[in-house]
Design a protein that fits this description.
42% helix; three-stranded antiparallel sheet; 446 residues; TIM Barrel; 16 strands; single chain; eight-stranded parallel β-barrel; 16% strand; alpha/beta; 18 helices; 2 domains; binds zinc ion
Amino acid sequence: MAAGSKRKASSENNNGESENGTKKKTIQTTKTEEEEEEEENDEGETKETFCNNPIGFQFKVLHTDGRARYTNLTLPHYDCFTPMFMPVGTQGCVKGLTSMQLEEIECQVILGNTYHLGQRPGKDLFLECGGLHKFMSWKRGLLTDSGGFQMVSLADLSDVTEEGVTFQSPIDGKSEMLTPEKSMEIQNAIGADIIMALDDVVSSVKISKERFEEATHRTTRWIDRCIKGHKRPKEQALFGIVQGGLDDRLRDISLKGLLKRGKDLPGFAIGGLAGGEGKEDFCRVLESALPKLPFNKPRYVMGIGYPIDIVICTAFGGDMYDCVFPSRTARFGNALVPEGTLRLKQAQYKTDERKVQDDCDCVCCLNYTRKDLNKIAGKETEASIVLTYHNLRYLMRLCKQMREAIEKKTFKAFCVEFTKKLYSLEKGVPKWVVDAFAKVDIDVST
Ligand SMILES: [Zn+2]
């Protein structure tokens, strides 16, 4: 990293305390600030760190196998185990599924979208009814994003300045500004167990280097405004988000900025990926960034929903994932199975009497054949519902299988087996997958 950028990062972060700064200062008072920064980055292994956690929030790494972790994340509303996948409920519910069905498939946490929830039903209604948990009769964990993701997905409708992001509402065309303070205010009203800092997120593939540099430093400045604006730190855990696009130097600057504020951040996320960048870049950034996050805090990789990505990220040391993909692809008539994706609208399924997945215990697999689904896939709501149910059940089971493999120290063999099956109907395992696993000493090439 260039000395100039390091100084820039440290001068911007001078309000923050190092996560284990207090401890270091008592034992080695002669270290310079730069030496301390270097040391802090060492594997990110922060031990016995003090953190202002919400009441009832706890995190414990139960087992490790290589870099993969099986952890227990206790949230105010639910006791979770990771690796875990969190389905996305855009308007306060996962499309097509009831809260009871989500419990049936062993879903632990649902992700709510702050921007959409803030627009409809709106902050005041949440304050009135006592938060999103009550609003959607969901007793388990909830996580809300900051609204920042909409900067990418509604990019042509948004304008980012130091103060915040100005949106043109897609509903009524009115201009509205989302600031770090406003994001906290809405997320405090929604009342999720985990809330996310507002970051200046830019698409990993489209924007110039200068824009990434600006966004990285702005995200660090905004985290202080988020910490200050967060009014329920005893009830909701604020996670910081590492940004920096595909640039290792910017990722490191972003990470250091967050680590210095570690006592106010019970968890960390990696953002700005899974936006269409090459798979090699995606794996390079995550393999490098994940082990630098503190060992004793949850690590959330945002926007990840392809089964192969979930397994690779877990091998790199990730804990939590979310994506609209499994439910969206279900609405197009596609089912996730160990051998890949069944595109049930295709003619080959017209006479296929088999279940979607032989060893699946879900409502879809117990009651429908591929032939039944071929008739209604992509057309009838019924197909969207049962396929969403199956796809989410598949991912919950995949995460559980990974936890069991990590506990038994057979995670490597699990990855080999999983990969072999996933690409069994294709020409072989893609090079990027072989290379990704090779980074953590897992050979899936044969
Ligand atoms: Zn099923």
